[in-house]
Amino acid sequence: MLRKTPFPATALTLALAPAFASLAAQAQQPQDAPRITITGSAATVAPSVAGFGDIPLARAPLSATVIDQRQLHDAGISAFGDITRLDAGFTDAYNAPGYWNQVAVRGFTLDNRYNYRRDGLPINAETVIGAANKQRLEVLKGTSGLQAGTSSPGGLLNLVVKRPREHVRAADVAWTEDGTLEATADLGDRGEAFGWRVNAGAARLDPQTRASRGERWLVATAVEVRLGERTLAEAEVELSRQSQPSTPGFSLLGARLPDAKDIDPRVNLNNQSWSLPVVLAGRTGSLRLTHTLLDGAERQLDVVVHGMRQRLVSDDRIAFPYGCGAEAAFDRYCSDGSFDFYDYRSDGERRTSDALDLALKGQAVLAGLKHRFNAGVLLTRYRARFGGQAFNFVGTGTIDGTAVVPPDPALFDGNTHRDERSTEWHLQDAVMLTPSLSAWAGLRATGLERDSVLTDGTQATRYRQSFTTPWLALVQTLAERWQVYASAGQGVESEVVPNRTYYTNTGQPLPALKSRQFELGLKHADEAIDWRVALFDIRRPATNDFHADDGAPAAGDCTDLDPCTRRSDGSARHRGAEVEGEWRAGAFSLRGSAMLLRARREGSSDAALNGLRPTNVPARSLKVQAAYNVQAVPGLAWIGFVTHEGERVVLPDNSVATPGWTRIDLAARYAHAAGAYRLVWRVGVDNATDQRAWQEAPYQFGHAYLYPLQPRTWRLSLQIAG
Fold first, then answer.
1. Residue 447's domain is classified under what CATH number?
2. What is the rounded CA–CA span in Å between residue 131 and residue 122?
3. Prior bond of 178 cis (ω within 30°)
4. Beta carbons within 8 Å of 695's beta carbon, 6+ residues apart
5. Cα(688)–Cα(216) distance, rounded to whole angstroms?
6. pTM, full prediction
7. In the chain, what percentage of residues exceed pLDDT 90?
8. How many domains does the chain have?
9. What residue numbers bound the domain in which 557 lies?
10. Does residue 479 lie in a domain region?
11. Residue 170 lies in a domain
12. Residue 463 within a domain
C-alpha cells in the first residue's frame, strides 16, 4: 500500500484549477505573441561548475550543455533521466522507472555518489531529484578532475537552484497518459534588501506501465538578504519525497535476444500483491555568503563561503527477477521465459552529505595580463548507514508478468556502512595572453579518507590517499566569431580491494586510477547559427583479478583455495567526435547534435578482453529538435524531436547486441495573453509511431537487463505566469 503524503497531487491540482479556469476565460490573442526558438548557445553562459565565472559557452574551451526549464517543458520532461533525449552525448545507463536515474556521458556512466553537484557543491544522487525548484541543468563533459576530487571521467551534472527575482507568479498543471497528474507553483519577489522564492510541486504518478502507481511532492524556499552594499547572504531549503514501485528490466532468454516487438512494454515484472514502493525522501539546505572586497574596472575580488547539508532516507524494495537457476545461467533469464524471483528489501537507508567551500573569485591585471581566477578549498564529508537487507529466493516468475510467488522479508543479508572525508584545494585561472590568445589552467589537490564496514562489524576497510589533477587549455580566436581550442586534463577515481578472504591484497587501496582526456574543438557563433565540433580521447584505467599462483586472469573464479590479486590492468579508451549546432531563420529554428564513439578495452593482460566494447554504450547517437512558428497564428509553434541511437552490446563478451532504433516525438505550443497573465498550452505525443525497440541494455549486478522504449504516450499541460 502506498504511503500517504502530506502534499497529495490532487489537492494542489484542485486548488489551482479555479484560477486556471478564470484566466483561460479571459484569454485574448495579442498581436505580438512570442514565438518559440530552439535555444542556442551564443548567449548561454558556460556552466558555473566549470569555475571560470560568467563566460559565454561559445568562448569557453570545454564541451558542455545547458538545459533550461523551457526546454524541459517543451520536451515534456519531468524526470532528469529523460535529458538523454536532448543531447547526443548523453545516453541511458540503467534508467529504471521508479528508481533513481543513471546517465552516461561520452560512454562513461556518471557515478551517482561523485558526479553530481548542486549549485557547484557535491551531492549524492542516489535518490530522485525534483525539478520544480531547478532553474537549469548544466552538464560538463569529459574528465572533471579540475572540478571534483574523485569522479567518473564522463563529466559532471550540476543542478542550479531557482533564486529570488522580481515578481514571480507562475503555475503549471500537466497530464500524461494513462493518468499522471502534476501541478507546480512558483512564487517570489525581490526588493533592494530582501528577496524570496517558494516552489511547490506534487504529482499523482500513474504511467502506462502497470503496477506503477505512486506519488511525489517537493517544497522549496530560497531567500536572500542584502547586508550592506557589498555583502549578500543566500539561504535555501528543499524537502521532497517520492513513493512508487520500480520497474525491473527484461533480459535475454537463454542465448536468445527476444524481439522487442514481442514484448509488451507496459508489463511490470514487479507486480506481486506484496510488492512495496521504493520510497526516496530528501532534505537539503544551503547557505552562501558573498562579500565583495574589490569592485573596480580592472580589479574585482569576492569572498564566497558556501555550505550545504543533504540528508537522504530511502526504502528500497522490489520483487526482483534475477537469473535462471534451472539452467545455471545467472546473468540472464531462462530459455522458456521464466526467471528466478527474489524478495529484496533494504529499509531505512540513510545518506548524509556535507560540503563547505571557501573561495576567492575575481579578476585582476598582473604583469600587463588580465586574469580571471578562482581559488579556495572544499571540505566534504559523507556518511551512509544501513540496516539489514533481504535478498531471498521466493519462486519462479515469467516474462508475461502473471506468476504469483509468496514473500520472504527475512533480513538475512548484511549491508555496508561508509564514511568519507576529503579536502580539496583548487586553483583556476584564465589569462589573456594576447587579444586573440588565452590560456586556461587549473589544479586540484585532494586528500581523501575512506572507511567501510559491514553492518555486523566485520570486513572493515580503511585507507587514506592523496593526488593532484591538473588541467590546461589554449584558446585561439581565428576571427571575431570563430574559436579553436585544445585542452588536456586528468580525472581520478579511488578504489579499494574488497575485503574478501580470497584476495591476497584484501582491503588495500589500488593506486589512484587517473583518467586522462585530450580534446580539440572548434566553435562558431553568430545571430543566425551556432555550431561546435569537439574531438576527444579519454583513457580510464581498468582493474582485473589474477590468480595468485600463476598470474593468469581469474575471470571471476577466485576462491579461498585459489586466491587472486586485484590490480590495475590496461584501460578503457573512449575516442569520438561530437557535433552540435543551432540554426535560426525566420519562423524556423533547429538544434541538433551527433556523437560518434569508439569505446574499446585496451592494454589488458587478458588478450580476450582487448578490443571489446563496453556494455550498454551506443557507438552513434543523433538528437534533433526543430520548431516552426506558424505565421498565420501568432504564438503557435509546431515542435518535433528525433532521437536515434545505434546498437548496444548486451554481454561483456560482446556476443549479443540490441539493434539501433529511432524515436519521433511531436508537440505543439501555444502562447497568448490573458489580461495581465501569459498562458502557454502544450500538447505532445512521445514515440508518435509507437516504435518497439530495446531502449537500453544495462549490465548490472552481474546480470544483463533489457528496457523497452515506452509506448506511444500523450501529454497535455498549461503554464501560467504573471
1. 2.40.170.20
2. 17
3. yes
4. 92, 661, 707, 708, 709, 710
5. 27
6. 0.92
7. 83
8. 1
9. 9-721
10. yes
11. yes
12. yes
